[in-house]
Design a protein that fits this description.
Blueprint lengths: L1 H28 L4 H6 L5 H11 L5 H13 L13 H36 L4 H15 L2 H15 L17 H35 L2 H8 L4 H39 L4 H10 L3 H29 L6
Length: 315
């Protein structure tokens, strides 16, 4: 197992290197001049040219990339033009808030998705299966940002059960109950689509496992239906579902960009929206790189968990 983990860890480095190239090229292709955006009304040709020299933006793209990569290897993501502070400090500060939101949403979609998929498969063609399938279809088809607006309108404006925006109360609060109170609406909104995807694939995997001969053998031995479902069928189906959960982790982190904008959550997503609008390229590059790296590591973790459940996958 140790050699397999080492091999998978080594395979991550080429992926991360490719990520740096993709992130840099995408940022380079964004139209507009950062120097012009920074200077605003003072953007005379002379001032723009001087600022581009100071920022190194007058260098060829390969040279800009090598400079950025060299700084990155030393833990330096540069300095934000607009915030006048190190990019790494800003990204890590914001990433903590995004991790709370995305992590909560991932837990919600995993638990409820697995539960709904198992129940739907066990009650195949029954009313429970039909209700779960209908709810899942509605959830997958609903745009998250639109659902977020509806949640704010109904639960925050009309019923006043939850706050409409922010991570903590403006006055007072700041403790764990206050955080959880603000977390409910954005986390539930972010988890809905992923819950539907996991539920559908769990149902499919469970139905396939329940048709296997060893399941019929387990029932013939007199094992209770609950033990057959949880100990044999669910464990086998989970091997196929875990990679999907890893993929949905990427969807949840990507979806946090517009969910954070809707709910004014002070995470990395809302930071990226502001940084893109102001052409703060170093801040955008740092934010996207951190999110993409987190996605790669989550998928690596899902892969390792999958091989722990089913050692045959180690090859």
């Amino acid at each position: 197992m140790a050699s397999y983990i080492l091999k998978r860890l080594l395979a991550v480095f080429p992926v991360l290197f490719g990520l740096t190239i993709i992130v840099f090229l995408i940022m380079a292709m964004i139209p507009g001049d950062p120097a012009t955006a920074i200077l605003g009304s003072y953007a005379t040709p002379e001032n723009v040219a001087k600022l581009n020299r100071d920022l190194g933006l007058d260098q060829p793209l390969p040279m800009q990339y090598l400079t950025w990569l060299g700084n990155l290897l030393h833990g330096d993501l540069g300095r934000s033009y607009t915030l006048n502070r190190p990019v790494l400090d800003e990204v890590l500060e914001r990433f903590g808030a995004t991790l709370v939101l995305a992590g909560t949403a991932l837990i919600l979609c995993s638990v409820f998705g697995l539960l709904a998929g198992v129940v739907s498969a066990v009650r195949q063609y029954g009313w429970t299966d039909k209700i779960v399938t209908f709810v899942v279809l509605i959830g997958i088809s609903t745009p998250s940002f639109w659902l977020g607006l509806l949640m704010i309108l109904f639960f925050a404006v009309d019923l006043k059960w939850f706050p409409a925006s922010g991570m903590y109360a403006i006055y007072g609060g700041g403790d764990l109950p206050d955080l959880l109170h603000h977390l409910v609406l954005p986390a539930v909104t972010l988890s809905v689509v992923a819950t539907g995807v996991i539920a559908r694939l769990t149902r499919t995997a469970m139905l396939e496992v329940l048709r296997q001969d060893y399941i019929r053998t387990a029932r013939a031995k007199g094992l209770t239906e609950r033990r057959v479902i949880l100990r044999h069928a669910f464990k086998a189906a989970l091997v196929s579902v875990i990679p999907v959960i890893g993929i949905q982790a990427g969807f949840v982190m990507g979806g946090a960009v517009y969910i954070e904008t809707v709910f004014q959550w002070p995470g990395i997503g809302s930071m990226l929206v502001t940084a893109i609008s102001t052409r703060d390229l170093l801040l955008v590059q740092g934010g996207v790189l951190v999110v993409a790296s987190a996605y790669v590591m989550v998928n690596l973790l899902a892969d390792l968990v999958q091989t722990m459940i089913d050692p045959r996958l180690r090859g």
